[in-house]
Amino acid sequence: xxxxxxxxxxIDDIAVHVPKLFISTLxxxxxxxxxxxxxxxxxxxxxxxxxxxxxxxxATMAASSALELMxxxxxxxxxxxRIYIGTESGVDEAxxxxxxxxxxxxxxxxxxxxxECSTVEFKSACIATTHALxxxxxxxKAEEDExxxxxxxxxxxxxxxxxxxxxxxxxxxxxxxxxxxxxxxAGSVALLVKRDPRLLALDPSVGIFTRDExxxxxxxxxxxxxxxxxxxxxxxxxxxxxxxxxxxxxxxGRGMIRLDAGECxxxxxxxxxxxxxxxxxxxxxxxxxxRREWKDLPRWxxxxxxxxxxxxxxxxxxxxxxxxxxGDYKRRFSKSSKFLEAYGKKVxxxxxxxxxxxxxxxxxxxxxxxxxxxxxxxxxGERVGLGSYGSGxxxxxxxxxxxxxxESMPKGILLKKLDERVEISLEDYxxxxxxxxxxxxxxxxxxxxxxxxxxxxxxxxxxxx
Length: 465
Ligand code: HMG
Hints:
The chain has one domain: Peroxisomal Thiolase, Chain A, domain 1, CATH 3.40.47. The protein has a nine-stranded mixed beta sheet, sandwiched between helices. A three-stranded mixed beta sheet has the order 3-2-14. 37% of the residues lie in helices and 22% in strands. With 465 residues, it is an alpha/beta fold. Strand 15 and strand 16 form a beta hairpin. The chain has helices at residues 28-33, 37-44, 58-72, 97-109, 128-147, 154-159, 229-253, 279-294, 300-307, 319-335, 337-346, 354-357, 364-374, 413-419, 426-433, and strands spanning 9-17, 21-24, 48-51, 80-86, 118-122, 163-172, 185-195, 200-210, 216-217, 226-227, 271-274, 383-390, 394-402, 422-423, 447-453, 459-464. The longest helix is centred in the middle third of the chain and has 25 residues, at 229-253. It is globular, with a radius of gyration of 22 Å. Bound molecules: 3-hydroxy-3-methylglutaryl-coenzyme A. 3-hydroxy-3-methylglutaryl-coenzyme A is lined by residues 36, 38-39, 42-44, 88, 125-126, 179-180, 182-183, 216, 227, 229-230, 232-233, 236, 275, 277-278, 281, 359, 361, 389-391.
């Protein structure tokens, strides 16, 4: 049995901006890097990566997704009280990226139209947007209390600034020829956050895990991340596990989820969206959490019948032998029919868009939500778990309940848009990656573009119709 919160605040709609350019990882790229395409398609799970054109950066992508969100919801600027942005691809060390975004939106809606909207740039690697979302949700709840005073002009107060927009925007960039290179991507996701949302009402229980780590970071002035690749996978798994168990403790403790005999918490989550740096990582996270969840339940017997019992440290000569047996068991578990069934049903569908866009860092998890929406996989009343991870490192596990409004939301438009993108050559990709191509591969149209960076470093943007 599951409980839903009284006052619903959450995600009403999503708009995604992905660059029009992409590179296939399976053809020229794989040949040039001497990698078997099967490794990238199956071992990593990525077939295409989005590549930002010369006129694009984190600010233009954020403004484009925000504009799409506003236009499809007929939102007026004065209705938007907050534009909170999660990014680790900030374009300035001091000026908030949101001020550039508001500047761009005002080129469409008119000067000063957003002057009562506040904006903050959240940085916490890939988890930043989840913190932005949490903060906008708190703000909406606090506003509800303020409305309780019921002043004479209360009606017009309520219509001003009554929704928030949360934007994730990033360019995931690693060194050319590095193992990180095939986990790049770019894009922006804008979320409309409001009371009584159509899509997902956020649940009150949130699980947290934080620890100081050197898995992935980008010192000031560096264009590409410093990444300890395999170690970053381990940090992700440890943090996700920690956040999930923190969530479970709180959700069960407050009675938000109630377990019957033989059940576990993940049985009450119809879908689980894990942060998706590459689709295979979501599979590793699912394997780790399902295995721990199922171990004490009757169903574990079926797993053991198929792949045998778990290795126990005391059965091995040393730590090395035990770890090798444990690694082998992990692989067998992730191929077991029980796991494949749960993974295929609850987790894999959220990785669809990431496999053709790549890592968009702080927006990846919300691209996962868009994947479910696009495939019409969300049904009213279902509970969705979201596991957000940010290097450095921290994780948050939270959930939301799908709302009735989901039925009337349009589906499939983004998937169609992704099919219309243009594939570029390896040489154009290299030039764009290294910032050596000043002109755009495709002239911008119907989107925001970076026009120039002046001698002081101030960036000039415009809407190109
Ligand atoms: P790698 O060297 O490509 O790894 O690095 P690999 O050689 O172990 O291969 C990966 C998988 O491909 C393995 O699967 C291979 O067996 C398989 P597994 O053994 O684990 O099941 N494979 C094949 N499969 C089919 N056919 C074949 C074949 N050959 C091999 N022929 C790594 C991979 C992800 C480490 C690298 O790309 C990297 O460093 N990426 C960047 C860091 C990253 O994405 N880390 C993820 C966790 S941290 C995170 O998510 C945070 C982040 O989003 C940033 C933030 O928070 O801001 C990155």
